[in-house]
Amino acid sequence: MDSIASEIKRLRDDLNRHNHKYYVENSPEISDREFDEMMKRLEALEREHPEYDDPLSPTRRVGSDITKGFEQTRHIYPMLSLGNTYSIEEVDEWVKRTETALPGLTAEIVGEMKFDGTGISLIYEHGRLVRAVTRGDGEKGDVVTDNVMTIRSIPLVLNGDDWPERFEIRGEIVLPWKAFDRLNEERERNEEPLFANPRNAAAGTLKMQNSAVVASRGLDAYFYYLLGENLPYDTHYDNMMAARRWGFKVSDAMTLLHDIADVDRYISHWDTARKELPVATDGLVFKINSLRQQLNLGFTAKSPRWAIAYKFAAERALTRLRFVSFDVGRLGYITPVANLEPVLLSGTIVKRASLHNEDIMRALDIHDNDMLYVEKGGEIIPKITGVDTDARQPDAEPVRFVSHCPVCGTPLVRFEGEAAWMCPNHYGCAPQLIGRIEHFVSRRMMNIDGIGDETAAALYAAGLARTPADLYDLRADQLMMLAGFGHRSAERAIEGLEASRNVTFDRVLFALSIPFVGETTARKIARAAGSIDRLASMNRIELTGIEDVGEKIADSIIEYFANQSNRDNIERLRAAGVQLEMTTENDEGRTDLLAGKSFVISGIFSRHSRDEYKKLIELNGGKNVSSISKKTDYVLAGENMGPAKLEKANSLGIAIIDENQFLEMIGQ
Ligand code: IVH
Question: What pTM did the predictor assign?
Fold first, then answer.
């Protein structure tokens, strides 16, 4: 093997090992930085030496943007479900039943967590991952190998050499609580629908078309079932411990149990201890350890007789509805909220629970004064799951959805295909105006220190701010008239406003509250358009040409700029010095407007220096070359361009542009 090949191999082995240390064992040996450097080195070598390509190289874990539908495949062994129960007695009975079915033997049992994610089947051949398939209908599933490869805790190439030549391993893909919270926080900011629980989030993520997005979400996977012809051991437990050595994440909670008393202790321990786990679990699974005994017990049509799931009861409370209120969001959407008699649920007091929209409210058929069941969906967001109809008063009326905005009285509208009613009085309805100011000043947007939600509402109430642009006219003495403001806090708010003039255009665009333009979309639009003026002039075709912008978003942008008060607001923000175009100082301005084009720069310029033009070319995806050739696309010419260059450009028919034309090309 030549030295390049051996370096590539060594880097791949090392990176795989460090990956495992970090994502499976939780005990990294090297710093993130050292890891990144090794990864960069490997990426560079692979780029230079495509002959050593390996589709399972650790560099392939980042995913790609290629979108394609999923191919379906038939499972080698059907993916069955588990019989389940909520009762400890029934688990005990199952133990006794299996023992009677195995005359003369006492069964050894493996206790494990029932992970609440989405099932996955992985096929390995010669120690390498060849395919990942979802459960699907149990018979056939979707091939999601590219997405699964982005999950860092899943080994692409196995350790050791005692694995069967070909085997299947099953497990659960989960989204850890932390990643789930992060994802929902982001979705909330972008006004995207929240995931109800980590299971839905994991399943949704796994089926995404863009594996690069999958890679960013932080999925994890636990394994609990090995299948194949030549398994190394004849017990489930030993096989799982072998799988752990090969590199799979097998939960530390997996334990050998010897009798019913052990089983009961396991249940009572994990009933509470599970709450400390980093991932969601919805129960425990008990399996007969011996594979021979498993074979003897066999399967029913739906599930194995050698296993049973014990499900934890969801924490639920019953409380009385006081009234339903209707919140108006910054974009005018109306959310019904159940206001409840306070009740304790999994350690917190619940007083309000969203009813989401009219359809959900109707499906629950809520009446005045009803007794409602509240559950912590995914254990964080309280959710109304039902009504105790027996407790309903005979004369109770169904709760009706409002037909007019509860704040400004405007008749509500509901667009086709949307679940939510909306107050269309966007420029006159107080909670919408206040909501947009709150959104504008908040941390992810303009990050205006010293002005928070309460101040936004107080400024509105005092008649000092109706739009974000009004904020920039504020004086310290006006702020000091607000409750809670003193000299110093007023100064701080003014400084915060001052500092917000440095916020980059992509965040400003997000801060403007254009319907459907969330954080990520705003960034892409800002980069593609380059400036607010360019964006305002773009038509539907140009807009939908931007990545992630569909017709709904395009129409929303067009409608936004068609509105005079929005345009006034923007002009006043411009006058206040807020950034309305991408600048070159930060990478934020990166576009591919000049992709594939090469430039020669010549002469002296007045609007930017030569170096700045070089940077602008690269920032917009173009290439700088030093001398003119057939392959040159443009000569960017300033004053006093040399006559020889001019002649050469002319003779080759190369376009000569001046700095104004160039800046126009990149939308500046
Ligand atoms: S064993 C033939 N073990 O629960 C039985 N399943 O309701 C194979 N699950 O589809 C499954 N944790 O997605 C098994 N420790 C565990 C599990 C587990 C979660 C899921 C799995 C399965 C479903 C069955």
Answer: 0.57
